[in-house]
Amino acid sequence: MKKISLNTQILWGVFAGLFLGLGLSLLDEESATFQVGLYAAELLGTLFIDLLKMVLIPLVFTSIAVGVANLRVHQQMHKVWKATLGFFLLSMALAVLLGLTAANIVRPGEGLQLAMFQDDMQKFQAAQMPLTEFIAQLLHSLFQNPMTALAQGNVLAVVVFALLLGIAMVVGGDRYANILILLQELLELMLMLVGWIMRLAPLGIMGLLVKLAATQDVALLATLVEFIVVVIGATLLHGIVVLPLILYLVTGMTPFKFWRGGREALITAFATSSSSAALPVTLRCVEQHLHVKRDIAGFVIPLGATLNMDGTALYEAVAALFVANLVGIELNLAQQMIVFLTAMLAAMGAPGIPSAGMVTMVVVLQSVGLPAEAIAILLPVDRLLDTFRTAVNVEGDMVGSLVVQKWVRKESMGGSRSGSEG
Fold first, then answer.
1. For residues 143 and 333, what is the distance between their CA atoms, to the nearest angstrom?
2. How is domain 6-413 classified at the architecture level of CATH?
3. pTM here?
């Protein structure tokens, strides 16, 4: 009997999770069946996420350090740096621009009565943080005691330390060859563990989607349907059209080939709503299915999981215009440019800030004088929207690794050709 592939098992898990979750949502929340079903789903989903988080920090640390150290072999470090950061800025700028355009055309929230949300806004206390304080806290979170960062799971600080360690190994050369070999072997062990954890992915993803489908407030979703449609529509447009178009123009890879290779990572990101939790699966997909070289994948993917947030930046820009429409404020071009820049900065800084989603959204609202308490309106639908934006965040990282590999290879070929002609 032919063995069913992991990809197919995960797809079955998605459909089963949505079907069972919708079935549970029809039951009384106080019934024993609902309580037992939700408990079992939470147990499966939490176990899967915890297993991914268990390998996350050692995987990020080793993949970044080894990736940077190995780039010296090809004398490509500066090329990869430039190409990676260039792609991240380009894709996030396009995402925010798309979100602002969609929000200006549809104008979600216009005519919606703010009175119905007044109670929520009064009960909710937003964590106020001026932009200057946000930047200071972000910079502070970058440079921490590495042992503390590793123990607390501060991904951004771990990435920074691993980058510096990798650069130090490059500068030190052969003196640190044994340390590099040790880190490479540890990286291979982590990837082996990821392979084992992925055998539980169909059940874990099913559990996460059962909980999502069973606990959504349909009445509230209907009230905010216009906002939800704009966010999901713009996010899908970026994920289905913009990113695949960039990929095709640069590498020639078709969207279907890319989606087939990255399907495990995209579904895991959708179900977990966490770029960090999906990172082990993303690395596995780009190396094994999309054939990105390990040194480039090990550098671009962990860095992208902390800095490259297309879906988040797009969401925060649309949310700012939605809140402005609710309170009857017309944002002019200069104010929308501030939203554009702040949404990008806030999305990039999100992983290193406590209560990241709420704090960064407040920063964007405050940048143009909108009431911070208005995020109380967004919180009930945030979990649903988070699934889509996280999937696009992860898709951006995978596209970035393929684009960077192509750019670096093209530049290297161009350099060697001009050198031989000289």
1. 36
2. Orthogonal Bundle (1.10)
3. 0.79
